[in-house]
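Blinded run. Sample ID left blank on purpose so nobody reads anything into the name before looking at the predicted structure. Input follows.
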Amino acid sequence: MSRGVRFAVFAVGAAGLGVLFVLAAFRLPDFGGRFHPYGDRAVASAIAEKTKNVVSSVNFDQRAFDTVGEELILFASALGAVVLLRTVRREREEEAGEHGYGPADVFDALRLTGYVLLPVTLLVGVYIVAHGHLSPGGGFQGGVVLGTALHLLYLTGDYPALARLRPVPAFEAGEALAAGAFVMVGLAGAGLVKTGNTLVGLEVGCAIVLVLAKFFEQALLVREEGA
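Blinded prediction complete.
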């Protein structure tokens, strides 16, 4: 595709977006007015669903469809990493302890820091997921913390231990099941904020682990045949 064609496609899309933005801006309520339809509906919905607070009601009762989209984007990213970084015909994958990929020689302070922070970070991630409906945070943020917490083992220089701690097939199944379960919970109706939050955290955590696992495998274990 030539530069001119790309610019033409961009111009058409940008023009359409500009028209929609202008039309939407003209229909906004006046600044400082008393007409707040979204706020009125959000508060009424939070009271009707008996959610802990209005913010959680907006996030989980009214924006669950948006969360499904975010989960599908992350799911597609993990799937793309698995497909693009898979071992191809000219390559082979070594075992985690093969050819010197055992525990590396790192500073004792760094190793101790990784071992100490691993359980603490996991606990923080669980707390963020479990209390997302009460305080800032939630399944997405907590899932990122949980997914990255496991990789503190890599900082200790013990990649084989990390490979044993996060078996890729189990995390693949966990991500798929959590994503499907969240969609089913959303279709079942409101009132399942804690359950939805937990499923989001599980799906996000598994996806983060899968993406990083594939990058680690490609960098450390995958070799060309005969190399």
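Unblinding after everyone has recorded impressions. The beta strands are 91-93, 222-224.
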